Amino acid sequence: xxxxxxxxxxxxxxxxxxxxxxxxxxxxxxxxxxxxxxxxxxxxxxxxxxxxxxxxxxxxxxxxxxxxxxxxxxxxxxxxxxxxxxxxxxxxxxxxxxxxxxxxxxxxxxxxxxxxxxxxxxxxxxxxxxxxxxxxxxxxxxxxxxxxxxxxxxxxxxxxxxxxxxxxxxxxxxxxxxxxxxxxxxxxxxxxxxxxxxxxxxxxxxxxxxxxxxxx
Amino acid sequence: xxxxxxxxxxxxxxxxxxxxxxxxxxxxxxxxxxxxxxxxxxxxxxxxxxxxxxxxxxxxxxxxxxxxxxxxxxxxxxxxxxxxxxxxxxxxxxxxxxxxxxxxxxxxxxxxxxxxxxxxxxxxxxxxxxxxxxxxxxxxxxxxxxxxxxxxxxxxxxxxxxxxxxxxxxxxxxxxxxxxxxxxxxxxxxxxxxxxxxxxxxxxxxxxxxxx
Lengths: 216, 212
Fold this sequence. Notes:
heterodimer; A: 216 residues; mainly alpha; 11 helices; B: 212 residues; alpha+beta; five-stranded antiparallel beta sheet; three-stranded antiparallel beta sheet
């Protein structure tokens, strides 16, 4: 018979990801800032989310945000529970493979709250490329839908942006370009089609400055 | 042995320095020691012969060892260290399971972020009457003082550079440690669920400065 080295047991027990320590610290901070019953309810909410296969870091972050901003405990718990529901809906809208990151799930939940339908998210995710800033693409879709562009036009713009090379800086110019065109009098749909056409031509999506003519 | 004879054998005295009555005995000792020195070295090829004599390891030996891992055996454990180890494992299970699902790049870490995909972002806020300004967001666990901004001139403009992982992040400014203020120059906004509006910032490579 031989004694199992206790050091080995300890090493195995403590061989958890370093990131877990950071999250454990964040959890401790959130729990400490809440009254005991609310802290227990938060712990339950996190455990239930984890049991449903949801990432818990966005939920923990929401709790930290609420405590930092001095929100009442019940409001914090409500926000955490609502976010868990939204994350689950976001997960259902995104393809399971590749597995979405918690950042992508959060961005999806955000844009769905901004009015983007699960079907539109699904269509955007379907054409996704490996090297694109998908979270920014999601929010750009949210911008366009929020501004009243028909969803098919918004998706067409993003599809053209992908064909153009998924450049992040070019993606950033889309919403301001639509804004400038609608401020100049175009309908959102026409502004969107104009921007898509510019992207397709590889020309700058920024319209000419005032006084030098306006595109039609 | 006579002490002077010992000193002679140790090389401290020559044969001529020995008393005459010890010289014959010294000669005998030297002959004996010379014989010992000649046979004291390891026999030629001893190492090779020893290695050949060792049992030869075969694939079957490794199979036996692997099979042995599955055999039931009694393990003796010291109670106190084993209890400590079990407590550490239980603590890891209680505190850690949520984090195991988390994407490392999205960890809500206060005051630090993963090195990979980090972009240095400049935050700027004009707050002439503020005594202090900080930026808090999901990239620093909403800690209201971890990332303070600095007023470099008397123009009331506060600036600070913060390392942030790639992705879309929510944030607000905190004035004087208590007043939460939405960035008036943000890319986009979203309700925070607590009656305020968070600013959103999308961080992508390559790094770019932003201002408000």
